[in-house]
């Protein structure tokens, strides 16, 4: 192959766009209208903590869990975003969500968060590690700070959460349940190598802990979403977003409610025998199609690849 590569490495920073971007994903009005297949009291008496609960999948999960009767706690870095979830759940369900501003990269803050949830609700049944993210870029151009930011959030932050939750479950002699939101890493993630490395780490960490921690009745599973349309899409340029859904054979995007319903299932007694698994929700992308979130290099497009 002698083609001269013409792909220009691009940096896309959402704060730099000078045009109005369309709404992405389910907004609050949409969330309020989502039906559920589950019984109203399916999670009654259960406490669920959702990281990144102020937007996207985290927000949808907080609302669904509250509708199903759970006591809900959320965390994130942006207090304003967290309060939108608190308000939504209060208006829709009438229950109070415990919101604790926390950067999951800060292990001390994570320890304090787990303590607050236990103090407030008297325990924790399910931890959902949903907080995370990345930016699209060719790996060769990653800055050191950028690499570290993504690894620290998605791998280290998730680990701090898992370890602190598990310590309390072991100490209290209570069962535990962890659901980690990862990504579709099976065939790698071009232009998202940092997150691919971190999420692959979380998947195998989870499989390992599912065995180590089974002695304390702590289960650990992962959900691997494909392209799920949420406000998190702001991290990507519009021209890339226009192609995202073409990376799966269904040629569709999932939505935050799809993932919330899977999380609710894993939080329910129906999932009591599922442990160490990765449930992929990607419309078949793992078998076919690749997302190029920063633009496909000519090297690939000239072969007519997806
Ligand atoms: C997965 C991609 C391919 C498939 C797409 C499938 C569909 C979408 C999947 C999704 O996950 S959507 C959900 C996305 N949501 C998010 O990603 C939100 C959270 N993300 C973030 O907050 C950031 O991306 C972050 C870097 C993970 C956060 O770290 P931090 O708060 O520390 O960020 P910064 O201080 O802003 O940046 C630190 C460092 O990182 C580098 N960097 C940041 N943004 C970019 C960018 N757009 N392009 C290149 N490099 C970037 C940079 O070195 C920053 O340091 P400074 O240069 O700013 O000093
Ligand atoms: N949408 C998609 O197609 C896919 C998404 N995913 C992953 O699913 C998860 C949910 O994404 P989605 O809902 O789409 O996107 P969002 O950007 O809406 O959600 C990400 C959430 O993570 C929180 N967060 C990020 N960093 C930290 C941190 N250091 N400490 C605490 N909270 C943090 C953010 O809150 P705050 O800003 O308040 O800190 C935000 O609420 C993410 O891990 C995402 O990467 C995986 C595959 C595909």
Automatic annotation (TrEMBL):
Comp. bias (Basic and acidic residues): 12-29
Pathway connected to this protein: Lipid metabolism
Top-tier EC class: oxidoreductase
EC number: 1.3.1.38
Residues covered by region (Disordered): 1-29
A single BP term in Gene Ontology: fatty acid biosynthetic process
GO molecular function: trans-2-enoyl-CoA reductase (NADPH) activity
Cited Gene3D superfamilies: NAD(P)-binding Rossmann-like Domain
SUPFAM superfamilies: NAD(P)-binding Rossmann-fold domains
Reactions listed under catalytic activity: a (2E)-enoyl-CoA + NADPH + H(+) = a 2,3-saturated acyl-CoA + NADP(+); (2E)-hexenoyl-CoA + NADPH + H(+) = hexanoyl-CoA + NADP(+); (2E)-decenoyl-CoA + NADPH + H(+) = decanoyl-CoA + NADP(+); (2E)-tetradecenoyl-CoA + NADPH + H(+) = tetradecanoyl-CoA + NADP(+)
UniProt subcellular location: Peroxisome
Keyword tags: Fatty acid biosynthesis, Fatty acid metabolism, Lipid biosynthesis, Lipid metabolism, NADP, Oxidoreductase, Peroxisome, Phosphoprotein
InterPro entries found in the cross-reference section: NAD(P)-bd_dom_sf, Peroxisomal_t2-enoyl-CoA_red, SDR_fam
Function: Participates in chain elongation of fatty acids. Catalyzes the reduction of trans-2-enoyl-CoAs of varying chain lengths from 6:1 to 16:1, having maximum activity with 10:1 CoA. Has no 2,4-dienoyl-CoA reductase activity.
Subunit structure, interactors included: Interacts with PEX5, probably required to target it into peroxisomes.
Family: Belongs to the short-chain dehydrogenases/reductases (SDR) family.
Protein name: Peroxisomal trans-2-enoyl-CoA reductase
Organism of this sequence: Croceicoccus ponticola
């Amino acid at each position: 192959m002698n083609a001269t590569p013409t792909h220009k490495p691009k940096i896309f920073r959402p704060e730099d766009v000078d045009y109005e971007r369309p709404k992405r994903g389910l907004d609050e009005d949409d969330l309020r209208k989502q039906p559920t297949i589950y019984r109203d009291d399916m999670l009654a008496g259960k406490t669920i903590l959702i990281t990144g609960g102020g937007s996207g999948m985290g927000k949808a999960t907080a609302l669904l869990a509250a509708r199903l009767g759970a006591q809900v706690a959320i965390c994130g870095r942006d207090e304003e975003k967290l309060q939108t979830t608190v308000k939504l759940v209060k208006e829709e369900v009438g229950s109070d969500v415990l919101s604790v501003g926390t950067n999951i990269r800060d292990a001390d803050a994570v320890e304090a968060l787990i303590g607050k949830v236990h103090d407030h609700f008297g325990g924790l049944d399910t931890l959902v590690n949903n907080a995370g993210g990345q930016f699209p870029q060719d790996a060769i151009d990653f800055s050191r700070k950028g690499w570290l930011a993504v690894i620290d959030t998605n791998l280290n932050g998730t680990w701090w959460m898992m370890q602190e939750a598990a310590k309390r479950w072991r100490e209290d002699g209570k069962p535990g349940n962890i659901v980690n939101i990862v990504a579709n890493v099976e065939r790698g993630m071009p232009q998202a190598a940092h997150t691919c490395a971190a999420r692959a780490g979380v998947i195998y960490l989870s499989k390992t802990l599912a065995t180590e921690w089974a002695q304390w009745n702590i289960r650990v599973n992962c959900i691997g979403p494909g392209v799920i349309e949420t406000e998190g899409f702001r991290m990507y340029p519009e021209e890339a977003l226009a192609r995202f859904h073409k990376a799966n054979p269904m040629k569709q995007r999932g939505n935050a409610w799809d993932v919330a319903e899977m999380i609710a299932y894993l939080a329910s007694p129906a999932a009591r025998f599922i442990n160490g698994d990765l449930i992929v929700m990607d419309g078949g992308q793992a078998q076919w199609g690749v997302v190029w979130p920063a633009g496909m290099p000519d090297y690939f497009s000239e072969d007519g690849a997806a």
